[in-house]
Amino acid sequence: MGKKIEIPERVYKQLAALDGQSRVNQTVARILREYLVLRKQRANDPFFQKRKSYSSGLSDVSENHDDYLYGEKSKLDDSV
Fold first, then answer.
1. What is the pLDDT of residues 21-33, one digit of tens each?
2. HSE on the CB side for 72, CA within 13 Å?
3. Angle subtended by helix axes 24-44 and 9-19, to nearest 10
4. Taking the model in full, what pTM does it have?
5. Residue 54: CA atoms inside 13 Å, Cβ hemisphere, count?
6. In this structure, which long-range contacts are made by residues 39-47, counting pairs with CB atoms below 8 Å and at least 24 apart in sequence?
7. What's the Cα-to-Cα distance from 67 to each of 56, 60, 62, 64, rounded to whole Å?
């Protein structure tokens, strides 16, 4: 079998309570596999890529964001 890892007793007890003591190893292995798949997916997802931040040079974005995003005041502004 593979390498052994140590997990805190508290975590082990919680896993054993969920899946039964005999299934803790399988549960931990499944969780780690799922984590690695998710991590690989995120590595390829542009949303999670680290990018440089840019400055617009505008000083009133918080007050006029609708104008900048939509080109004019949002119609919701008039209905409130």
1. 888 889 999 999 9
2. 3
3. 100
4. 0.51
5. 2
6. none
7. 14, 11, 10, 5
